[in-house]
């Protein structure tokens, strides 16, 4: 259940996203109510967390809410109960959103009636009839209908999102009827779920453990090294204790009463350095849950364990050297986030689970001593996660050079979003821009001579072309802030001086390239690029400008005209 403090933190986070919204739009918004600031920011924040897209302009385009679009763009149309739409082409999923932002903290919950309001849009989709829709909603509906009419299998999901305590009861007969009638999955996101999204930079977390000598193995790189790390066999209840949100209980290593473990909740800030973001219910979580419930004594063998980094690990032999006491300071779980979340969820779901199941389970925990500024912590996080199904971009977000870019840009009041929901190193700073590491990688790749590949080879930039893009031979970190400023300057130029033209990031990638290959004049290079687009012909009968920009032949045309 969500708490009042969680409610307040989410409100503060939403305010920050409203500020980012204004900076993206380049204007101060005139709002009728002060409440609209966190409400609009809430839309952006949740969409970023659920979709994984960090670019504010893309998130704004997803929002179909009547009041939002009327206030910001003076576009008035009925949203039919759908406040945002995200079409996930890669996973073939249609994600619809219904938002409810509450001004005050209450014990109320979501209403099934809000689900029914949203079915007006769903009915239009199933009838392949968008004639009564308008604005962005109609555009999205036409695209969804086109997808539904293809031979591909598309999944339809409705997110009911609110900053309230209670979600919908998924066993509700009415909701089950919707799934049967519309093939529609309804998913609730409420206060406690949103708190799990949080990318809060944590205060140092410490804990104490007492282990038998046969449950611990120490490791040093050499006999002269003072940095000792440990591999331990730990009971699951003890893992729950040292990762809970109560600092006193984390130090209380002699708890014998199992009932004390029932009220322990995970401190999510312990996962700040973890690669994965919010996952919700996945097949991996279900496998973890299944082994905990059905074969807890074999959990040690079935689970890969957890990897922890800590700035300081102090050990002391106690009880006539029969046991070892460990004091771990500033610990972070860098691998095993799914495991720890599932264990805590299972513990909280039933008061009897701690005694009936979890007390019989043990887990492998690796604890490595690292300094926060040490490259080692990033290498450990990257390499221990690389064996799992994690995107290469998420893995590289932990690389040392990415943290260096984050620090450098922060000094220039620019948010470098390595993680979902990131609003900067300092919660108090007034930032000018926000750029994601994916977008920054695409920008560098374009500058290095590949604007035609930057859009559709994003993953390769962080894999095959990573060293070429971020290596010191081609990339000077001291130019980072200027490059980000240039990117936003080009966007502003397109929207102000060339407002009659459609512009995309793909065009901006080319302008960045032309600024270095032709002349450093944005307006002239925009005219040059548009001329190339109009002149280019390919084997395809009719090709859209967006398609031209990603073709090898178009890049060759641009280079040939530059040479002339």
Key features?
564 residues; 15% strand; alpha/beta; 45% helix; six-stranded mixed beta sheet
Overall mean pLDDT stands at 85
Poorly predicted parts: 276-283
Strand order of the largest sheet: 5-9-8-10-7-6
| Rg calc | 26 Å
Beta-strand portion reads 15-25%
Please give the count of helices.
25
Helix percent reads 40-55%
Number of domains: 3
Task: Supply the helix-strand structural class.
Answer: alpha/beta
Shape: globular
Give the beta-strand count: 12
What does the main sheet amount to? Answer: 6 strands, mixed
Measured distance between first and last alpha carbons = 67 Å
Give structural notes.
The chain has about 575 residues and is of the alpha/beta class. It has 3 domains: about 5-195, no CATH class; about 205-390, no CATH class; about 395-564, no CATH class. It has 25 helices and 12 strands. The protein has helices at about 5-25, 35-50, 55-60, 65-75, 110-125, 135-150, 175-180, 190-195, 235-240, 245-250, 285-295, 300, 335-350, 355, 375-385, 390-395, 400-410, 435-445, 460, 465-470, 480-495, 505-515, 520-535, 545-550, 550-564; strands at about 85-90, 95-100, 155-160, 185-190, 205-210, 215-220, 230-235, 305-320, 325-335, 360-370, 415, 435. The strands form 3 sheets. It has a 6-stranded mixed beta sheet. A hairpin with a 4-residue loop joins strand 1 and strand 2. Helix 1 (about 5-25) packs across helix 2, helix 11 crosses helix 13 and helix 21 (about 480-495) packs across helix 22 (about 505-515). The termini are far apart. Residues about 275-285 have low confidence and may be disordered.
């Amino acid at each position: 259940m969500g708490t009042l403090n969680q409610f307040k933190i989410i409100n503060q986070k939403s305010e920050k996203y409203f500020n980012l919204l204004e900076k993206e739009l380049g204007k101060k918004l005139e709002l009728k109510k002060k409440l609209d600031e966190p409400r609009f920011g809430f839309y952006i924040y949740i969409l970023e967390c659920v979709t994984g897209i960090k670019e504010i302009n893309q998130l704004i385009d997803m929002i179909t809410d009547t009041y939002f679009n009327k206030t910001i763009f003076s576009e008035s149309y009925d949203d039919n109960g759908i406040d945002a739409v995200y079409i996930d082409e890669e996973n073939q999923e249609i994600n619809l959103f219904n938002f409810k932002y509450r001004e005050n903290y209450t014990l109320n919950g979501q209403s099934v009636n809000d689900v029914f309001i949203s079915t007006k849009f769903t009915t239009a989709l199933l009838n392949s009839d968008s004639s009564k829709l308008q604005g962005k909603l109609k555009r999205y509906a036409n695209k969804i209908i086109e997808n539904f009419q293809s031979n591909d299998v598309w999944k339809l999901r409705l997110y009911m999102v609110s900053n309230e305590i209670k979600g919908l009861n998924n066993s509700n007969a009415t909701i089950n009827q919707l799934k049967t009638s519309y093939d529609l999955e309804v998913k609730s996101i409420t206060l406690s779920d949103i708190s799990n999204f949080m990318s809060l930079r944590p205060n140092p977390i410490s804990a104490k453990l007492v282990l038998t000598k046969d449950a611990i193995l120490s490791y040093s790189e050499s006999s002269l090294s003072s940095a000792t790390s440990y591999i331990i066999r730990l009971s699951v209840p003890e893992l729950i204790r040292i990762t809970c949100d109560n600092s006193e209980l984390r130090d209380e290593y002699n708890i014998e009463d199992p009932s004390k473990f029932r009220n322990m909740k995970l401190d999510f800030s312990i996962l700040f350095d973890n690669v994965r973001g919010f996952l919700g219910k996945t097949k991996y979580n279900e496998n973890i849950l299944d082994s905990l419930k059905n074969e807890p004594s074999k959990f040690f063998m079935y689970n890969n364990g957890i990897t922890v980094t800590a700035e300081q690990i102090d050990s002391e032999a106690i009880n006539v050297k029969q046991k070892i006491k460990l004091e771990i300071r500033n610990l972070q779980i860098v691998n095993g986030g799914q495991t720890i979340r599932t264990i805590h969820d299972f513990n909280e779901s039933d008061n009897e689970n701690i005694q009936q199941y979890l007390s019989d389970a043990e887990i492998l925990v690796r604890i490595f001593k690292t300094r926060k500024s040490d490259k080692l912590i990033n290498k450990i996080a990257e390499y221990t996660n690389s064996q799992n199904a994690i995107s290469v971009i998420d893995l590289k977000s932990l690389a040392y050079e990415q943290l260096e870019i984050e620090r450098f840009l922060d000094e220039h009041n620019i948010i470098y979003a390595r993680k979902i929901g990131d609003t900067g190193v300092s919660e108090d700073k007034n930032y000018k821009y926000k750029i994601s590491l994916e977008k920054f990688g695409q920008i560098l790749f374009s500058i290095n001579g590949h604007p035609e590949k930057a859009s559709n080879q994003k993953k390769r930039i962080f894999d095959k072309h990573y060293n070429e893009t971020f290596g010191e031979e081609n990339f000077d970190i001291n130019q980072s802030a200027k490059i980000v400023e240039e990117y936003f300057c080009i966007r502003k130029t397109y929207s102000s001086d060339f407002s009659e033209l459609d512009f995309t990031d793909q065009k901006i990638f080319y302008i960045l390239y032309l600024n270095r290959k032709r002349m450093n004049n944005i307006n002239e290079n925009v005219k040059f690029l548009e001329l190339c687009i109009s002149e280019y012909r390919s084997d395809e009968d009719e090709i859209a400008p967006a398609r031209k920009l990603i073709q090898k032949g178009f890049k060759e045309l641009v280079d040939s005209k530059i040479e002339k």
